Amino acid sequence: MTTQSDNGAAPNRGALDADVIVVGGGLSGLQAARRLVAKGQRVIVLEARDQVGGRTKTVEVNGHRFDVGGQWTGPGQPRMYALIKELGLETTPTYAIGKRILDLRGRISTYSGMIPRVNPWTLIVAQIGIWKIDRLCAQVPKDNPWDCPRALEWDGMTALDWAKRNLRDESVIAMVNGAVRVIFGTDLANLSFLHFLHYLHSGGGFAKLIESHDGQQDSWVVGGAQQLCTGMVPLAGTVHTSAPVRKITQDSQGVSVVSDVGTFTAKRVVVTVPIALADRIQYEPPLPTMRDQMTQRCGMGATIKVLALYESSFWRDAGYSGESVSTDLGTITFDDTTPGGQAALLMFVTGSPARGWSERPAEERRRFVLDTLVRYFGEQARNPTHYLENDWAAEPFVLGAPIATFPPGTLSAFGPALRAPVGRIHWAGTETALDSTGFMEGALESGDRVAAEVLAAR
Amino acid sequence: MTTQSDNGAAPNRGALDADVIVVGGGLSGLQAARRLVAKGQRVIVLEARDQVGGRTKTVEVNGHRFDVGGQWTGPGQPRMYALIKELGLETTPTYAIGKRILDLRGRISTYSGMIPRVNPWTLIVAQIGIWKIDRLCAQVPKDNPWDCPRALEWDGMTALDWAKRNLRDESVIAMVNGAVRVIFGTDLANLSFLHFLHYLHSGGGFAKLIESHDGQQDSWVVGGAQQLCTGMVPLAGTVHTSAPVRKITQDSQGVSVVSDVGTFTAKRVVVTVPIALADRIQYEPPLPTMRDQMTQRCGMGATIKVLALYESSFWRDAGYSGESVSTDLGTITFDDTTPGGQAALLMFVTGSPARGWSERPAEERRRFVLDTLVRYFGEQARNPTHYLENDWAAEPFVLGAPIATFPPGTLSAFGPALRAPVGRIHWAGTETALDSTGFMEGALESGDRVAAEVLAAR
């Protein structure tokens, strides 16, 4: 055996390394850091991976850049548009010309505009369902959903339970579950109905969350969304990568943060990583049980983003927009052709069909994806020039995507611990946002909020 | 900043410290260790706390010993009785002579035997409910509950949902919720109905789980259940305490386990700690996503055990057994007077009323407990000679009690990862048991199973 030194020692009071340490170099962490730096604070950002980005990640293929993580923005996201402008970046609208595909329990239909060509009864029930959901959403406060009069009732049931009793029609439930998999990375069966309603309210309602034009998938950042993070780095103080944080110690004088590249001291620390990752940091003294019990429960969703590059955007020639959604496969596709002209389709595999993805044989995964694209867009989809998958659940310093799941009974019981500072520890991340929680906009909002919180606490 | 050495280095092949390292010195870990030692294996046990015991803990007050953790055993627990006998220990029956108290939504009634004196309609509905539940339980396989034909349906709803639709009567639901808080440390709202049924099936049915005489609370170990753990230590190889495990690295040659007292190498490692604690160990390479996503979700229940010692067992004189259960307060009490004659009442505070217990003022907590005891047993309960609380959620190396909660959609999706070894890493703990899962018996069963698994894998 070898002996290990104590690496969580109390901070050296005389020479704190910084005023604030930010754990996590994603959008929320870097936004917080630059806000604090702008106010004269000395800031250290500790990012676990070898690059900043959080749940954004841009890859380059043949000189073209693609997002394999967070990508879109849309109306109602003022911080995103401000940051894009500030960094001199541009957006391009999501390609949405032509027919869309709905794969409803194995039956493929095409449609233009927003209304799928399916059984009119299904459409009516679906529309009534969306209307019901949006009406209930409005009753759930964005800031403190646990204060909603029906919080206990809604948090005591799964979203599936509600759907079964209120939507009834199997096809409609399948459609809603398909949308939920994309939005949450998990199934109706896993979600607290209160969390479901709160999330939808925060994002502007059900329709807006699933729409491209004028919705949350309206447009995307040319050159990739990870640039939003890399672009903030020069403004964010000292940024260390490959620096996963293992332990946070606090006392009345300050904090000491143990990372793989060393131990840093500061007056305060901001933890911006996903809840399930924050759960894996050791805290000394231990966190209050309400916070601890919450972080034991909020697992990340499962989402794989797949890119298939082609010689040409052949689906456009056939009159397809590239958009498809399947109720049963957990897939959704978009045209991801770059402004530079590299033809591409992207597919999300989401929710239960995405679980354990990386443990399955690569050939089986690829066949599933390409078979599905062929079914929707024809035989030309069979042979991409380049094929690429990103399984977020297999990223050890992210743990899943797009967001954390609050299972039944969690938000109403432990929700107040989501943002409540614990002494010198402050919490951020898109899950803590009031508006557009779960989106890049929410991450930026949480960065702004936590920076103000830290400044006020000094 | 200070620099930290790499303490997760690959094992020195020439001189492994042991054949098997066992993480966790509770009943499952020590049972596994002694089974392996008996087969000639060199075993190291690493226990995070300064004493072995897991979810058992015995304290001494005025020369009398009391369990503030796992305490009872009953029929259908062969391993418990065998171990008790082997260690030369004795059991004593739970005191159950006299009136019991039911606090049904604030209305106190007393009864003898098993049938509370409440509205006959409530009794009938409750009995039908228990019969329904026990009938459904039998359909959930103990080994692989996810194989049950209705697994997806039952895992897609909370136990509360089922209760609301099938028990209907508010008083009956409150009674079932009261029992569930004691059994699971959480509320009907938090539980997957599949997990609920599986757990009850494993424990012998609803009635058996809540009963003292002939049930899971039939009798207890004189001198304390922690003796079961301390008694196994001499048979369990080398046991290190104050040795929390931070990291497990494996490759084709063996494992390397980083703890606070040093790094140890072996051929295989057995992880027996609660799922939520296993989630906080760093694994290299990372675990399969199915296992990782499961451990992100299975938080521990909340249970506080309170002891109030008195000059005499005054409740016995007044004809009370000391047993009470409240539907709304989350409390249950028992007579805990020692065979040596130290009078004591014990109270569990369980489920949602137990959450955040340690963060509330000590005086408020004590007042709540004693006010409740006074309501049930009279003014003499007001002034105990000794008062003691143990909040399991506040134990950083346990995280809660009695067991892990599987929220909806978790057991059916990720359940197969519960026991599946990951290379050289094997999993035990009472949550992995087939019979009496969640009980001390289940912990012992899992120790036996994992020891056999490790021996077979060599």
Explained architecture:
The structure is a homodimer of 458-residue chains. With 458 residues, chain A is α/β, with parallel strands linked by helices. The first copy, chain A, has helices at 27-38, 78-86, 120-137, 151-155, 159-166, 170-184, 193-203, 206-210, 226-232, 275-278, 289-295, 314-317, 362-377, 411-414, 440-457; strands at residues 20-23, 43-46, 58-61, 64-67, 72-73, 91-93, 99-104, 107-111, 219-221, 238-240, 245-250, 255-259, 262-266, 268-271, 282-284, 303-310, 320-326, 331-335, 343-350, 386-391, 425-427. Chain A folds into three domains: 13-54 and 226-287 and 422-457, FAD/NAD(P)-binding domain; 58-74 and 92-97 and 215-222 and 301-394, Polyamine Oxidase, Chain A, domain 2 (Alpha-Beta Complex); 118-210, Guanine Nucleotide Dissociation Inhibitor, domain 1, CATH 1.10.405.10. Chain A has 15 helices and 21 strands. In chain A, the strands form five sheets. Chain A has a seven-stranded mixed sheet with strand order 8-7-17-18-19-16-20, with helices on both faces. In chain A, strands 10-2-1-14-21 form a five-stranded parallel sheet, covered by helices on one side. A four-stranded mixed sheet of chain A has the order 13-12-11-15, with no helix packed on it. Chains A and B meet through strand 13 and helix 11 of A and strand 13 and helix 11 of B.
